[in-house]
């Protein structure tokens, strides 16, 4: 078992991180290389001011018409994304491992709060899943990949929660947790999960077009 | 499509790992964690003799090590007369890892290199 | 154009388009799809494809969706799913039925109004995706008859309505003569080099609505504007080729427009109350030609009237008495941010302005723009029925007192006309220029 | 060009007072100054629906229901499009062509001013008329007109097969072609635009669209073998008869001659190409990048560029120099041989070279007032109106025609007095 642990915590983790980072890196390279062909105007209209205006507006809960139109969804979305990003970064267990490996450490979440945030992420995934089934306009544009993505996102949180609370065996659950986390990381650049990166680009472009060229609001 | 098949297979293997999970526990003696002001995890069950027998450890200094001022391990000396916390403060200092990190590194490094013993968080810190 | 069949049957298009579809082969479809996607789309298209998280939040932006009892087939993402996504997923291996459905969706069920751009958290430009679909349909030669014919007109005459060179000048001179009955020394100067302003219109004005040229001439002369109109190609600023995906013709028509201004050495172009024309000169056509912004500043009528009223060049003798409500056209509001100026103009001209709800950038589309009305009478019913939400919005404004509906855009005007009639809304439709003409101080008054 | 040596080039100022004109007529339209500056003319309204032309305060004998497009020809004659009794024709110095038409428009003048061509509509059929003589054939529709440089040939894009609006299949099979002196090509195309007649009058070139997507250049009805995504107007080489046109392939514009790409780089935009009068150089307006405009001479880019637009590309008559107008930030500058003159203006009108290419002058506007810029220096007069400057044959003097306070001035200045 130590062999498996070692493999998952060692080479696999490296592989996941490398896939994640190089995937994003390659995506960015591709983005910047191809940005001028064949639509030569894309960079031309880019505006830092209006790009940021749009990004900040859309990253503020209830600051746009559509966020206000869907209060429940808005609350869930913001809390979900917040917990999704904060929990793994500030989880004490993760920080301890990083500290051991590279002597880097930072503030960590109280374990109880981390547990709660993990449950929020899991709950949000369930919410999104149910919403995909229940709302006709969402169901219509949903396909299997959307559910798979939800599972990929939820899996590390479910396994992490179980591993921490040591239900169904902490050891194997820890390995499962690492594995699912690695799957998530590696999947980000290569699936529609890369919206977490591309959001900033598509938003900034639309913000620039609306602010600089159209003189109108894009929210 | 191929991508999603791979993903499904990976998820299934995660589930299989979960199913195979099992935990055995020995009689309970605990490592002293009083030095930690507000320990976040439960104390680690540790039976010194059983551990050493199972691990076939003869050299006390393997765990109860002594380092000189240059950071070199002194081969012939050991420190079983001292508490770990006597040397290792709660936080890292220039030469020594902090107490928690010292425990983690000491135990895990050995468990990993010998391919035996607990390595995952919950294996040492059971709830 | 004898054909006026009503195509309620969703599985049928006009006969010319059906003929185009019957000529398609799977190989041809695949080749065109591959060619357009590979050679003409880039990072933007890819990013939009990869970013859309299928959240469905764009749905409520679309008047077609809202008007069809929230039928997801009409949501913006729903329409993309039935067209572009499927096309990419199947790598262009689609059949004629798919193309037929795509024609209907891309050309008659999306106004490219970009309201959904305000609703997508990622800022995905769904109208652009729809234009990519139309570009593919253009390359497959299955563009609906009426708008294809309009694109042909653009290609030959550089105007929208097959107006011949002599007819254009003749009409302008006729309106000049008519208007001289009102202001004896009024002029519509043709080909006057070195004027401040070139005034350009869309071809339906000389063809059907010559009184708009008359009114513009009265306004220009009263305000003492140094203006001209081109006597050759370039007088028409409209561009339906932009909406059929015939970008080459779009660019050619826009070049003619800007070169007319350049030849006449004017400082700026003022254009009449038309929305899509603004989009074609100041957003899409100029880009295709390599001009990041219009090389000669383009001033939309709303902005022009705003300047005239603000500077006092036009004075209002008596305000328009009936309460009005103001329709914000997509191409000059979401497209140019002229909504506050439009309100200033409306308030200067009228006693009472009743706001539509929603308004400004969030106003509902007229249902005619984006080339939809130009697909012809065959799709008129589906167009009006696809916009009951607009009728509700108008009824609501009417219930709060509005009697006149101002639509400062030709397409909006026609689209709203159809909606007002179909739903018996009972609002009187006006352009700003109608009201300015009616209420302004004219030279005789002085 | 016309012989300018016989003009009065003595230094000095002649004036014509126009302040009385407005009392003489109900209204006076745009003033036009003759090329030699000796006469000043305008369309004037005599009474309701009654127009004439006022030349140096004297009216033409005839009046018309309508007069428009009044222009001086290069030989000093004055021409306009006029209508009487519902019929249109061309008037030159007050006398009309014998033929009358349903409508005439788009007059074209030869460089020497001797020849006038117009587009003609008669009984809803269309043709061209040159010097009072119309084509033997007429057509259902006619767009884009051309007059050969020497003024002896006329050409137009004409519709030779009937297709009503809405008959898209018929249209797409090709209903248009080009006609020279009324003789249409045999072959038809979906579209034909922008005709060019060769200097020797023997060839006609045009942009053509073969179907909805394929563009090329056709010379004497024969399309180039190569197909392009788009093309712009072709020009003939001054001497060797070759045809050069910008063509678009792989999303970029290239310069092509007789179907072969000749410049080794592509552009975001490329148009308005022209040969130097001696045929040795080829220049064009180009956008090397999106939103960047400059001039390319034999595929070499000028170092300066403009963000908004570049216009009025012209060679000096001796082929030695090239000028163009550059617009950035709403202002115009003049560029000569790759250098921008430092002054910027609200507007610059078409620059004029002296025949030896040593001097360049242009009408410019700043804040509603006009003056001239000569070799980069401003003429120290601010006018209400000014016409394009004219150089004397040796380039030493400059004819300035301008309006100030209702008075027209014809002034001869030494070029060196202005340019320093």
List keywords for this structure.
heterotetramer, B: 127 residues, mainly alpha, Cytochrome C3, 5 helices, 39% helix, globular, D: 420 residues, mainly beta, five-stranded antiparallel beta sheet, 3 helices, 51% strand
- Report the major sheet of chain A: none
Number of domains of chain C: 3
Q: β content of chain A, as a range?
A: under 5%
DSSP summary, beta strand count of chain C = 8
The DSSP helix count of chain C reads: 21
* Secondary structure: helix percent of chain C: 40-55%
**Mind telling me the C-alpha Rg of chain A?**
20 Å
Number of E-state strands of chain A:
0
Alpha carbon gyration radius of chain C: 22 Å
Percent helix of chain A, as a range, is: over 70%
Average pLDDT reading of chain A: 93
Assembly classification = heterotetramer
Q: Give the end-to-end Cα distance of chain A, rounded to a whole number of Å.
A: 53 Å
Q: Residue-averaged pLDDT of chain C, rounded? A: 95
Low-confidence stretches of chain A: none
The topology string of helices and strands of chain A comes to HHHHHHHHHH
Q: Spans of chain C of 5+ residues with little confidence (pLDDT < 50)?
A: 1-8
Explained architecture:
The complex is a heterotetramer of chains A (219), B (127), C (446) and D (420). Chain A has 219 residues and is mainly α. Chain A has 10 helices and no strands. Chain A has a domain at 64-190. In chain A, helix 1 packs parallel to helix 9 and helix 6 packs antiparallel against helix 8 (144-165). The longest helix of chain C is centred in the middle third of the chain and has 18 residues, at 247-264. Chain C folds into 3 domains: 15-143, Orthogonal Bundle (Fumarate Reductase Iron-sulfur Protein, Chain B, domain 2); 148-309, no CATH class; 315-445, Rossmann fold (3-Layer(aba) Sandwich). In chain C, strand 3 (268-271), helix 14 (276-289) and strand 4 (298-300) form a beta-alpha-beta unit. Residues 1-8 of chain C have low confidence and may be disordered. In chain C, 66% of the residues are buried. Chain C is globular and about 70 Å long. Among the domains of chain D are: 1-100, no CATH class; 349-420, no CATH class. In chain D, the strands form 10 sheets. In chain D, strands 1, 40, 41, 42 and 43 form a 5-stranded antiparallel sheet that branches. In chain D, strands 22, 23, 24, 25 and 26 form a 5-stranded antiparallel sheet that branches. In chain D, strands 35, 36, 37, 38 and 39 form a 5-stranded antiparallel sheet that branches. Chains in contact: A-B, A-C, A-D, C-D. Chains C and D meet through helix 8, helix 9 and helix 13 of C and strand 2, strand 6, strand 10, strand 14 and helix 2 of D.
Short description:
Chain B is 39% helix and 0% strand.
């Amino acid at each position: 078992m130590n062999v498996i642990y070692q493999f998952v915590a060692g080479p696999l983790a490296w592989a996941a991180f490398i896939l994640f980072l190089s995937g994003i890196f390659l995506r960015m390279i591709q983005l910047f290389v191809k940005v001028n062909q064949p639509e030569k105007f894309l960079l031309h209209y880019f505006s830092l001011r209006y790009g940021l205006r749009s990004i900040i507006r859309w990253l503020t809960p209830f600051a746009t018409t559509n966020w206000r139109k869907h209060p429940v969804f808005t609350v869930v979305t913001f809390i979900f994304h917040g917990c999704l990003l904060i929990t793994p970064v500030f989880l004490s267990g993760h920080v301890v491992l990083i500290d051991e490996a590279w002597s880097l450490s930072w503030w960590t979440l109280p374990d109880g709060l981390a547990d709660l945030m993990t449950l929020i992420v899991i709950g949000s995934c369930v919410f999104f899943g149910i919403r995909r089934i229940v709302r006709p306009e969402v169901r219509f544009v949903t396909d299997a990949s959307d559910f798979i993505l939800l599972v990929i996102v939820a899996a590390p949180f479910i396994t992490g929660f179980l591993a921490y609370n040591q239900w169904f065996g902490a050891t194997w659950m820890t390995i499962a947790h690492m594995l699912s986390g690695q799957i998530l990381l590696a999947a980000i650049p290569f699936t529609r999960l890369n919206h977490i990166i591309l959001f900033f680009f598509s938003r900034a472009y639309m913000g620039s077009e609306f602010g600089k060229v159209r003189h109108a609001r894009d929210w | 499509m191929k991508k999603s098949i791979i993903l499904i297979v990976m998820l299934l293997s995660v589930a299989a790992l979960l199913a195979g999970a099992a935990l055995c526990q020995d009689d309970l003696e605990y490592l002293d964690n009083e030095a930690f002001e507000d320990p976040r995890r439960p104390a680690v069950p540790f039976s010194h003799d059983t551990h050493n027998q199972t691990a076939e450890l003869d050299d006390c200094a393997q765990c109860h090590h002594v380092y000189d001022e240059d950071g070199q391990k002194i081969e012939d000396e050991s420190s079983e007369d001292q508490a770990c916390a006597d040397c290792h403060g709660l936080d890292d200092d220039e030469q020594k890892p902090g107490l928690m990190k010292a425990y983690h590194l000491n135990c895990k490094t050995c468990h990993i290199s010998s391919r035996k013993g607990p390595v995952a968080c919950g294996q040492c810190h059971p709830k | 154009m004898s054909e006026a069949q009503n195509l309620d049957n969703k599985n049928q298009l006009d006969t010319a388009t059906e003929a185009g579809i019957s000529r398609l082969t799977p190989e041809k479809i695949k080749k065109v799809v591959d060619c357009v996607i590979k050679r003409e789309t880039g990072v933007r298209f890819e990013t939009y494809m990869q970013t859309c998280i299928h959240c469905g939040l764009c749905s409520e932006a679309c008047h077609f969706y809202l008007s069809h009892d929230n039928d997801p087939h009409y949501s913006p993402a729903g329409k993309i799913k039935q067209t572009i996504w499927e096309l990419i997923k199947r790598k262009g291996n689609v059949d004629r039925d798919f193309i037929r459905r795509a024609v209907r969706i891309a050309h008659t069920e999306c106004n490219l109004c970009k309201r959904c751009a305000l609703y997508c958290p990622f800022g995905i430009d769904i109208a652009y995706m729809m234009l990519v679909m139309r570009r593919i349909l253009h390359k497959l030669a299955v563009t609906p008859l009426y708008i294809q014919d309009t694109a042909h007109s653009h290609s030959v005459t550089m105007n929208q309505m097959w107006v011949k060179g002599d007819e254009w000048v003749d009409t302008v001179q006729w309106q000049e003569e008519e208007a001289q009955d009102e202001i004896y020394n009024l002029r519509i100067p043709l080909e006057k080099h070195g004027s401040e302003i070139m005034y350009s219109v869309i071809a339906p004005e000389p063809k059907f609505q010559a009184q708009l040229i008359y009114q513009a001439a009265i306004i220009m002369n009263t305000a003492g504007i140094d203006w001209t109109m081109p006597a050759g190609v370039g007088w028409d600023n409209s561009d339906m080729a932009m909406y059929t995906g015939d970008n080459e013709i779009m660019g050619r028509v826009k070049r003619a427009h800007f070169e007319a201004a350049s030849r006449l050495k004017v400082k700026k172009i003022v254009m009449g109350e038309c929305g899509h024309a603004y989009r074609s000169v100041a957003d899409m056509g100029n880009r295709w030609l390599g001009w990041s912004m219009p090389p000669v500043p383009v001033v939309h009528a709303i902005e022009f009237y705003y300047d005239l009223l603000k500077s006092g060049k036009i004075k209002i003798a008596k305000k328009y008495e009936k309460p009005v409500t103001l329709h914000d056209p997509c191409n000059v509001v979401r497209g140019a941010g002229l909504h506050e100026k439009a309100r200033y103009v409306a308030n200067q001209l009228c006693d009472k302005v009743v706001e539509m709800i929603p308004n400004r950038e969030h106003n509902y589309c007229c249902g005619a723009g984006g080339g939809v009305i130009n697909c012809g009478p065959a799709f008129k019913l589906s167009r009006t029925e696809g916009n009951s939400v607009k009728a509700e919005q108008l009824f609501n404004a009417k219930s709060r007192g509005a009697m006149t509906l101002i639509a400062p855009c030709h397409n909006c005007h026609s689209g709203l006309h159809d909606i007002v009639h179909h739903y018996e809304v009972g609002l009187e439709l006006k352009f700003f220029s109608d009201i300015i003409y009616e209420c302004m101080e004219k030279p005789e008054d002085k | 060009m016309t012989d300018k040596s016989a003009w009065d080039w003595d230094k000095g100022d002649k004036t014509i007072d126009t302040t009385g004109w407005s009392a003489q007529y109900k209204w006076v339209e745009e003033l036009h100054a003759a090329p030699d500056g000796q006469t000043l003319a305008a369309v004037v309204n005599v009474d309701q629906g009654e127009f004439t032309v006022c030349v140096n305060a004297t009216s033409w004998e005839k009046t018309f229901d309508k007069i428009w497009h009044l222009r001086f020809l290069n030989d000093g004659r004055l021409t306009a499009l006029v209508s009487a009794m519902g019929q249109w024709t061309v008037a030159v110095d007050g006398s009309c062509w014998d033929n009358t038409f349903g409508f005439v428009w788009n007059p074209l003048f030869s460089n020497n001013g001797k020849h006038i061509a117009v587009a003609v509509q008669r009984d809803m059929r269309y043709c061209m008329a040159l010097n009072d003589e119309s084509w033997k054939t007429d057509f259902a529709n006619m767009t884009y007109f051309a007059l050969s440089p020497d003024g002896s040939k006329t050409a137009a894009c004409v519709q030779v097969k009937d297709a009503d609006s809405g008959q898209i299949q018929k249209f797409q099979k090709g209903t248009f072609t080009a006609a020279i002196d009324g003789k249409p090509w045999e072959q038809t195309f979906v579209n034909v635009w922008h005709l060019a007649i060769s200097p020797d009058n023997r060839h006609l070139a045009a942009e053509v669209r073969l179907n909805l997507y394929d563009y090329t250049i056709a010379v004497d009805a024969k399309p180039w073998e190569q197909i392009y995504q788009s093309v712009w107007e072709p020009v003939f080489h001054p001497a060797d008869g070759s045809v050069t046109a910008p063509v678009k392939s792989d999303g970029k514009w290239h310069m092509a001659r007789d179907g072969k790409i000749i410049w080794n780089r592509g552009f975001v935009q490329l148009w308005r190409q022209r040969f130097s009068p001696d045929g040795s150089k080829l220049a064009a307006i180009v956008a090397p990048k999106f939103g960047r405009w400059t001039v390319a001479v034999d595929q070499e880019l000028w170092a300066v560029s403009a963000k908004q637009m570049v216009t009025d590309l012209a060679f000096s008559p001796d082929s030695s120099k090239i000028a163009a107008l550059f617009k950035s930030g709403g202002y115009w500058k003049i560029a000569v041989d790759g250098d921008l003159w430092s002054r910027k203006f609200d507007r610059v009108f078409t620059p004029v070279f002296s025949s030896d290419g040593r001097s360049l002058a242009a009408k410019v506007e700043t804040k509603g007032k006009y003056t001239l810029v000569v070799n980069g220096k401003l003429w120290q007069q601010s006018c209400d109106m000014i016409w394009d400057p004219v150089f004397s044959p040796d380039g030493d003097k400059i004819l300035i025609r301008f309006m100030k306070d209702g008075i027209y001035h014809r002034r001869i200045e030494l070029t060196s007095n202005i340019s320093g």
